[in-house]
Amino acid sequence: MKEGFRQAMAWLHTWAGLIFGWLLFAIFLTGTLAYFKDEISHWMQPEIPARSVPTETSLTLAQQYLEQRAANASRWIIDLPGAREPALSVRWQSAPAKPGERGQFTEKRLDPLSGAEVQGRDTQGGEFFYRFHFQLQMPYPWGRWLSTIAAMVMFVALISGIITHKKIFKDFFTFRPRKGQRSWLDGHNAVGVLVLPFHLMITYSSLVIFMTMVMPASILAAYKGDVQAFFSDVFPAANTAKVAGTPEPLLPLAPLLEKAREHWAGGSAGQVTVNNPGDTNASVVLTHNGTDRVVHEFGRAVTFSGVTGQLLAKTPEQSVPMAVAGSFYGLHMGRFADPVLRWLYFICGLASTAMIGTGLVIWLGKRQLKHAKSGVLPFELKLVEVLNIASMSGLVIAVAAFFWANRVLPVDMAERPQWEINSFFIAWGLSLLHAAWRRGRGAWVEQLALAALLFASVPLLNAVTTLHHLGNSLATGDWAMAGFDLACLGSGLFLGWAARKMQRAGQPEITGRNRQRSIPLEQEAH
Amino acid sequence: MLLAGLLCYGGFTALCLSMDRHHAELLGRKASIAERRRFKWAGWLLLGMSLWAAVSVAGWAFGLVQWCAVLMLSVLLLVMLMPYRRRMALSLAALSLLASPIAAYAVL
Amino acid sequence: MTAKHSTLPVSYRLAVLSRVLAAVLGGYVLTALASVCLTLWVPMARADAAVTGMTGSFLVYLLAVLWCFGCRTAWRAWLGLIAPSLVLATAAGLMYWGGRA
Predict the structure, then answer these.
(1) If both were cysteines, with which of A76, A84, A170, A229 could A274 make a disulfide (CB 3.0 to 4.6 Å apart)?
(2) ipTM here
(3) Is 60 exceeded by the pLDDT of residue C2?
(4) Looking at residues A267-296, what average pLDDT do you find?
(5) Residue A507 half-sphere exposure, CB side, CA atoms within 13 Å?
(6) What is residue A215's predicted lDDT score, i.e. its pLDDT?
(7) Any domain includes A494
(8) Which residues contact A185 (CB under 8 A, 6 or more apart)?
(9) Residue C37: pLDDT above 60?
(10) Is the dihedral of CA B47, B50, B55, B60 positive or negative?
(11) pTM for the complete prediction?
């Protein structure tokens, strides 16, 4: 019975892993990149200098700008610059949104030193990867649903994988390279088991993040259908008084920052929302910036009157269930991570991605062996091969294309951000076509080689198209800029090595040896 | 984080050496049962110390997160290194243990 | 001699489909009921109860999926979901219409 159960779990792991593997690879790769989204954005907008300016100054400048440009707005939202996000951005809403609907905002980015609108090339920057990894470029809410379904399948695949892995403790330190299929499986097990806490955390937390969307039954039951009441309870600071209609000058916002800090006993405001600016019922909500805590506190904010500066409300201490949900949220986002820890997050993310990738390779490799004699693959396996190539090396090419587009497309081009994104998808689509036409090992080698070339030459591209090349960025201590160039170079070298390995493995003498060594794998009951 | 990482790496190497198969791989001979037990104890002790190091420096929340991160990545490094650079894997462990008191002094 | 790729019997494919439907749809219903049951029975404020119910629900979904593929027959998959669902629905219903009214 136990063997039957384990075999059933192996079957489940294999099929769930295959069908969702391609999508999950894309989600994990872009999600991993998203840990450095601010740094990527900085590289993609080299015109905007990274300047650290006191928050009070930024807030005052933002207020001046909004009082000039958006005096009649119903709401202002000011995102204050932080350690990683040096930009000051302002948004305003002309009219309040209907309850339950999302509001319409105008957004502008300001220079935190001068308060003037920023003049940098238009781009979505690192935000593209961040949004893609949970929205999948699909219209709201379909992308989120699909990515959350993928997350549930990932969770099932992880647990079924653990159950299937009979020798999880015995083989804990086992990695035997240069043994064909055996090595791929060892590798898959290594990145799987050794980094398991991260995989489990990131997967379960992604489910928690969208739980109100995918599992609303609890809310409907507890609140008898009044979903808005639930969100009002969780985000009390979002409840704002209606506009009174009588104009009253808005007090200077900057001093409120210190007042908020006192209430929070440390930490600082990340966002300032002004409701009904210039009205008697103006209120200023300062939302806590969560970078000093691991556990995310949903909607932690202090509200002051916009006219008198008097404290109107303060969100209560977090309850245990909220803290648990907040832990998942906080751990997933990793906003609290300093540069070293952020790199560790990034490496763990790459490990997850590698786990999925090796799984896809093993799935096909095992079945390809059965057809090795005839040399002809049935249609289904050909399809898997093409999808493997396009979803992995193709995706990597697309990422490189995105960065290349940023430097190559004219700065004042219309719809520039959209065209950078289009370059990403066009490159991905072309790689799919190439994989379908070229097939097999040749396609892998060519795509990996192209990706290697594109990534390795990013620093050169940067030097040719801007003044912020490596020599410059290292000299001025612009670590984000230099780090990006160096990371691309490193990625290029890695991809080049992978291309070489693929090419060598395809050579006849070596294939023969691999085939012999792979047979013991077949004999292992798995 | 560095101290926790050094202790983790050393701890995992010890645990690895407590296993027959890997002991033979790394040190060229089989280990006696007593030796294996000693390595096992040493390994777990070092891992425990690394947890204590992480939490005493950074508190429970940050400490646990940092500990998990170095835990995972130190063992990944060890496993990836072993088949290619057996001697480096071992010397790194020795160095880590030697450097730990210095790192401890600097941080605690 | 090329070996012919053996075709799986229709009954097998139907059984797999049945298990998949049980896991995806039946599993979702069971999970939602478990989530609601937990929310209504746990002695907490509404918001906290809802959050608790939702946060833990995915563990139930996991178990439901593992059951649907791990049990011996496709019929058992459905039975194994329907039986606890009825229990949970009763418990939830009691609290929803009876307990707090």
Answers:
(1) A76
(2) 0.96
(3) no
(4) 89
(5) 6
(6) 97
(7) yes
(8) A362, A521
(9) yes
(10) negative
(11) 0.92
How far apart CA A384 and CA A437 sit, in angstroms, is: 14
**DSSP 8-state secondary structure symbol assigned to residue A315:** P
Cβ atoms < 10 Å from Cβ of A513: 12
Rounded mean pLDDT of chain C? Answer: 91
- pLDDT tens digits for A158-200? 999 999 998 999 999 999 998 988 999 999 999 999 999 999 9
Q: A47: which residues sit within 8 A by CB, 6+ positions away?
A: A119, A120, A121
In a domain, A47, yes or no: no
- Mean predicted confidence (pLDDT) in A468-478: 84
Q: Which of A143-157, A278-292, A442-456, A482-496 has the lowest mean pLDDT?
A: A278-292
Taking 70 as the threshold, does the pLDDT of residue C6 lie above it?
no
Within-domain flag for A412: yes
CA angle A267-A271-A272, nearest 5°? Answer: 110
Alpha helix positions (H), A409-469: 416-438, 440-456, 458-465
Q: What is the pLDDT of residues A3-49, one digit of tens each?
A: 699 999 999 999 999 999 999 999 999 999 999 999 999 999 988 77
* Rounded Cα distance, A32 and A130, in Å: 9
State the average pLDDT over residues A278-304.
88
Residue A354 falls within a domain, yes or no?
no
Q: Is some CB atom of chain A closer than 8 A to the CB atom of B75?
A: yes
- Write out chain C residues lying below 8 Å of A212, CB-based: 54
CB-closest option in A175, A197, A340 to B82: A175
* pLDDT attached to residue C38: 96
Q: Is the peptide bond prior to A410 cis by the omega test (within 30 degrees of 0)?
A: no
In the prediction, which pLDDT does A6 show?
94
CA C44 vs CA A325, A366, A458, C48: distances in Å = 15, 52, 55, 6
Give the start-to-end residue ranges of the domains of chain B: 2-107
Chains A & C: contacts with CB separation below 8 Å: 103
B44-86 confidence digits (pLDDT tens)? 999 999 999 999 999 999 999 999 999 999 999 999 999 999 9
Confidence band of C101 (pLDDT split at 50, 70, 90):
very low
Identity at A78, one-letter amino acid code: I
Is the confidence at residue A115, as pLDDT, over 70?
A: yes
Contact flag B61-A341 (C-beta cutoff 8 Å):
no
Tokens linked to A153: 């399948």
B neighbours by CB contacts (3+ pairs under 8 Å): A
Q: Is the predicted pLDDT of residue A521 greater than 50, yes or no?
A: no
Q: How far apart are CA B27 and CA A241, in angstroms?
A: 73
Residues of A in contact with C61 (CB under 8 A): 152
Q: Which chains touch A (3 or more CB pairs under 8 A)?
A: B, C
Q: Give the one of B15, B79, B82 whose C-beta lies nearest to A194's C-beta.
A: B79
Contacts of B69 in chain A (CB under 8 A): 198, 341, 344-345, 348
Q: Which domain holds residue A441?
A: 372-526
pLDDT of residue A126: 94
Residue A3 pLDDT: 67
Q: Are C72 and C49 in contact (CB under 8 A)?
A: no
Answer whether A340 touches B (CB < 8 Å): yes
Chains C and B make contact, 3+ CB pairs within 8 Å = no
Q: Find, among A466, A479, A489, the residue nearest to A39 by Cα.
A: A479
Residues A193, A432: Cα–Cα separation, whole Å: 31
Q: For residues A458 and A364, what is the distance between their CA atoms, to the nearest angstrom? A: 33
Interfacial A residues in 308-327 facing C (CB < 8 Å)? 319-322, 324-325
Residue A477 phi, psi (nearest 5) = 75, 25
Q: Measured between CB atoms, which of A5, A218, A230 is closest to C70?
A: A5
How many structural domains compose chain A?
Answer: 1
B79 interfacial to chain A (CB closer than 8 Å) = yes
